[in-house]
Specification:
This protein is α/β, with parallel strands linked by helices. The chain is built from 27 helices and 28 strands. It has an 8-stranded mixed β-sheet with strand order 5-6-2-1-7-8-9-10. The chain has a 6-stranded parallel β-sheet with strand order 13-12-11-14-15-16, with helices on both faces. A 6-stranded parallel β-sheet has the order 18-17-19-20-21-22, sandwiched between helices. α20 packs parallel to α21, α20 packs across α25 and α23 packs across α26. The protein is elongated.
């Protein structure tokens, strides 16, 4: 059993002694724990061990105090190392624990006991791998004890791995529960996509593996016209696709001679079968079965080769691809290799699907294109050192623990609607992404908020989310009741539901959409002072609990001047909800030569009123964002005299484009439009609306004044300032 004296000591003890782990400025070092089923010198397991070891050692070089908990696993054998006490290996404090099983399940209660006792003393824990008892137990303990945990699956949750029904069933039930409170790290964009498909609402970072590259790498000049040397450097396993490579080579009629060197476990049963297959295909004279090579031999072999081939059916990362490119050797990989996207990005070789004909064609291209191989040999070593610098990757791992993870939750869009809320928040994302201490993820409700059962689905979804801060926006305020109140921020855009005509429904909405959520959440944001006043009045909460942060103008709206058509102006109307006042707008336009463009669904009542009033109109209910912008640019003025609004985003959108606005003098609209940024009318008086429209049409000087003041007004709604205001709240709530 591991003694406490060998572990992390108290802060005062660490301050009072000069040790290897302290930062130069005397501050406490970051305390890091890696949990991995096996560790060097058990290199039989391949790339994961090398990557974890390099990551841990570089974190030490950055001033962190790094520990590794691992087992004595070394394949079917056990490492001959002391167990239960720390050993310093390249600056990393490694503790080995004896496993009870001699197979890949790695049942190891001693490691779990040590993690339970010592886990809370670490600032961050990285758990590597999956599908073994070491990791299952570690994740259970980390969840139980609420430890800050990063889960690094290293490709073990890929569709290829989950192709077995029992694994898929386990992962979607027990596995998902074990991992729900951890943050995940993918090592390639391909793995990130696979993990997001498996768990859409998980916090997933994408950080490459740390790769150990020698300070001085061997190199050689490309010999054009000589035998092209192909290299296969990997395990011989059905997953690696070596049989496909032999099939493609047997069909190859290349103008240049080639030679394949195989560096792998050629003595295994599968390796023997592949040698027999090569003889059957008449390839024996062109293949050298080298077997396993030492680390020094590996680098020389990579440098001496012209093309590394890796036809894997599934490869999470493929360290060997980085190693090959680091010495300037081109690569030919399958599109199932995690780094295939990187190869395509830099044109560092060739990629092919798992198809014999495709591999045959790409092999021919690799053999014939000496100029491309020469370019790769000259350019890629420096590029790889920049992109896979182990120290920089280790720094990113350490910085990740300082990031506050925020989930911003939106309603599910329906087919019809003018989603100004979502567009407004979309303007904030670039600014949040630029903040190193924040990670903000967009979450969309699984169902539209209509009827009982869809709302039950939304509630269940909320229970599955995990973040340091939850930010709920849109018209699903009831969902806040199913989130941790102390971590939840609620943005209320309006209190329109408090005007529901049915008293029973109005009471239910008041409780579930306003009073209980406001009481439950730690903080509330409204988009206008008018909405804040309503929230305080309806709920009785303290005004200090409510902040006002206005909506931001979507970035795709730009100033677009247009001559005003005073003869027959095009008037834009947004929305069909009762508060949008469409019927009074139609009445006000009776007898005015114009075209009313309605961006909303309209019913038979509205159509009948349009016909009675003789108003020419266009009706476009389904517009994407680009089409909405074009609608603003095509119009001459915006008519937006709503009976009430929580904010009134169309006012700002029209002002940004450079169009005069006719809006109401009540609710939030004067606050949003600015004192001189719009023509204000009484929304309940048809004559007042008509008079405002006619004044804008007939008075050119007044129109120009409105446009000028509108352009000045929109400067108050810069996305950068609004994103910063929300970020400050996120930071306070995440402490």
């Amino acid at each position: 059993m591991l003694r406490g004296k060998y572990f992390l000591q108290g802060k005062e003890q660490l301050r009072n002694r000069s040790n290897l782990w302290a930062h130069k400025d005397g501050n406490m070092p970051t305390r890091v724990l890696h949990i991995v089923p096996s560790y060097k010198p058990a290199v039989i397991y391949g790339g994961i061990i090398y990557s974890v070891a390099m990551l841990a050692e570089r974190q030490v070089s950055l001033g962190a105090e790094v520990w590794v908990f691992t087992t004595t696993a070394n394949g079917a054998e056990e490492l001959s190392v002391p167990t239960g006490i720390p050993m310093e290996i390249s600056g990393v404090r490694v503790v080995y624990f004896r496993r009870w099983t001699g197979d890949h399940t790695h049942f190891c209660p001693g490691l779990w006991r040590a993690l339970w006792q010592q886990g809370p003393r670490f600032d961050v824990i990285y758990v590597h791998s999956w599908w073994n008892w070491v990791v299952f137990g570690a994740m259970l303990i980390c969840r139980w004890r609420s430890l800050q945990t990063f889960f690094v699956p290293h490709g073990m949750l890929s569709p290829y791995t989950l192709r077995y029904s029992w694994r898929s069933g386990f992962q979607h039930t027990v596995g998902q529960w074990l991992l729900a409170r951890a943050r995940w790290i993918a090592t390639t964009p391909q793995e990130e996509g696979e993990l997001r498909a498996l768990s859409p609402w998980q916090d997933i970072l994408c950080l490459p593996n740390a790769v150990s590259l020698p300070e001085v790498l061997p190199s050689r000049a490309l010999s054009v016209g000589e035998v092209v040397q192909l290299l296969y450097l990997s395990r011989l396993d059905p997953k690696k696709g070596f049989g496909l490579l032999l099939d493609a080579l047997s069909e190859l009629e290349a103008p240049l001679p080639w030679r394949l060197v195989v560096a792998g476990d050629i003595t295994s049963a599968f390796g023997q079968r592949m040698q027999q297959l090569a003889r059957q295909k008449g390839l024996s004279d062109c293949i050298e079965w080298r077997g396993w090579v030492t680390d020094e031999e590996k680098w020389c072999l990579l440098a001496q080769s012209d093309v590394l081939v890796l036809p894997s059916q599934n490869e999470n990362f493929a360290v060997v691809v980085v190693e090959a490119l680091a010495v300037g050797t081109s690569v030919l990989v399958s599109d199932q290799v995690g780094l295939s996207a990187y190869v395509k990005q830099w044109d560092a070789g060739w990629c092919a699907p798992l198809c014999r004909a495709a591999w045959r064609d790409q092999l021919r291209s690799a053999l014939m294109d000496a100029a491309k191989r020469q370019r790769i040999r000259e350019q890629m070593p420096d590029q790889v050192r920049r992109d896979f610098d182990a120290t920089n990757i280790a720094r990113q791992y350490l910085q990740a623990k300082e990031q506050r993870y925020v989930q911003v939750i939106f309603r599910k869009p329906s087919r019809h609607g003018h989603y100004s809320i979502e567009r407004s928040f979309g303007a904030l994302w670039p600014y949040w992404e630029a903040m190193a201490d924040l990670r903000v993820q967009r979450v969309v409700a699984v169902a539209a908020s209509r009827d009982f059962w869809p709302r039950v689905r939304i509630a269940l979804q909320m229970r599955r989310l995990y973040a340091q801060v939850y930010h709920l926006s849109g018209d699903i305020y009831f969902a806040a009741l199913f989130l941790p109140g102390r971590k939840t921020l609620l943005t209320i855009h309006d209190c329109g539901f408090m005007r529901h005509p049915h008293p029973v429904k109005r009471w239910l909405l008041a409780q579930l959409w306003l009073r209980w959520p406001v009481r439950h959440c730690r903080h509330v944001v409204t988009v206008s002072e008018a909405t804040k006043a309503e929230v305080v009045r309806y709920t009785g909460c303290a005004s200090t609990k409510v902040s006002v942060i206005p909506s931001a103008i979507p970035p795709h709206f730009r100033f677009c001047p247009k001559p005003f058509n005073a003869e027959c102006p095009r008037i834009l109307h947004i929305g069909s909800a009762p508060n949008k006042n469409l019927l009074r707008h139609i009445e006000a336009l009776r007898g005015i030569p114009c075209v009313l463009h309605i961006v909303a669904l309209i019913g038979p009542v509205e159509r009948q009123r349009l016909e009675q009033c003789g108003v020419a109109f266009e009706h476009t209910p389904d517009l994407d964002e680009a089409a909405v912008v074009r609608a603003y640019e095509a119009c001459d003025l915006l008519l937006f005299a709503s009976t009430w609004e929580g904010f009134g985003m169309p006012i700002l959108e029209a002002q940004t484009v450079g169009r005069p606005v006719v809006t109401a003098h009540g609710s939030s609209m004067p606050e949003v439009a600015g004192p001189e940024g719009a023509c204000f009318v009484d929304p309940f008086d048809v004559a007042s609306i008509r008079q405002g429209v006619l004044r804008v049409i007939q008075d050119a000087a007044y129109r120009a004044h409105l446009v000028q003041k509108g352009i000045q007004n929109v400067r108050r709604y810069r996305p950068s300032a609004i994103a910063q205001a929300y970020a400050e709240i996120y930071r306070k709530m995440a402490r």
